[in-house]
Amino acid sequence: MKRPLAWRTFTLLASLLLVVSAPAQSQGQQRGDGSMRMEYQFIRTGTFKSQGLDFDYWATDTQVLLLSGDYAINERFTLFASLPYVQKKFISKVDWGGDPHNPNDPYWINFVPPDKRFWDDGDYHGALQDFSIGVSYRVAKDNWTLNPYISYGVPASDYPFFAKASIGRNLWTIPVGLSFSFVPYFSDWHFDGNVAYVFSEEPLGQNVDYWLFHLSAGYWFTGNLSVNAFLSRKDTNGWSLLDPDFSNGSDPDNYPTGWDTEAWWHHDRLVGSRSMNLGVGVDYFLSPEWKISGSAFQTVWADESNEIDFAFTLGVSRYFGGE
Amino acid sequence: MKTRIALLTALAVTLIGGNAFACGDSLYRVGKGVSYRVYTAPLPGSVLVYGESEGAKLLAQELSRSGHGVRLVTNDEELQAELGSGAYDVVIAAYAEQSSILPSTSAASGAPTFLPVALTEDEEKLAREEHARVMMAEKDEIKHYLKAIHQTLKQRS
Fold first, then answer.
1. Could you give the ipTM of this predicted complex?
2. pTM
């Protein structure tokens, strides 16, 4: 005998739609899972901090277009890669010019820079920056996911490194790291972290390896909308900008005369920059395949480094299903 | 399926780029993406959902996605057949349907535990007098169902 159900109850359960709008998916990963992402980033830097001194006479604007992707080889291993195009410009904040780095300046006598490209002319200059490729290994236990990884980054073009508008250090790197994720049971919070030691090519034999740390706490307001706050830190081995070796032991106040050294030519590669950035981000899934993201951040502490006054990122991701 | 590795992969590439500036150092990646929210059942169990509506179907899907083994039945004949199989830990149905379910859930040890869904506050009060855990149709989200199932499974183990 068929009895009437209290259908109304389960009709009301349809309100679950509002809170469980995730697409059909299982957990873990399968061979063939992957994604592609395109991001735009703008960064405004300001004061350079060194040993408690502020050098506040120039700024830079940077625009980045980053293409990245990943592909799951199997349930454990994932290949990932990224390629950024970066353009940057030097902005003087003072009448006397703000000390653009010019390899054609007449003070270069004892050492003559072999690369004469001048990028601090106030215009945007850009190039492909560093191509990275790597592999990660997935370990999932309870509500923890760990992903140890290793990657290799290599300059994708021979961009100049002696310029305040230089787009990078033009060195190969090998980041070895561990990312982790913790999602408490029955919670809308999620916590993520990443720690990496980055082995770097050694300019002039100097160790310029660095540590990277990243922590974030996020909250899913709905199944497809998450907001997070994050803190990131970089800690690089290297010299201070005020190291007397840059001026070959001569009076550092005698700048730039006396600073015509190979070390000064490489100073952006040799300086041990350290900084901490704080930011917020948002991720919104338009559909199971498409996601848009945004973040904004700034430097909260820096040494031997330019502070980021303001930066934001906009991104769109496309996801592909596996087998 | 299509988004399942969003979390993983974004994590791995988070820190490829530098994130500080010397004179000419450029940042190009901070932060990371996240995946769709997916709740996880720490103790996967066998759950029988009784209902015919889209809401019941969705509930069954979400419980299944979280890791539970779920069977959805839509009429009394199927319900009685499944209850008789002894294969379930928890039965979720409207509180008003308990006369169809209680005989099978309050019998021998090992019988499934009834997790009623109350439609109104009055119904909730009544249900709480008889059952340790009661779900509210208009209030509780999937995570609350998962928590109640988890507590039930822990109690039964």
1. 0.74
2. 0.84
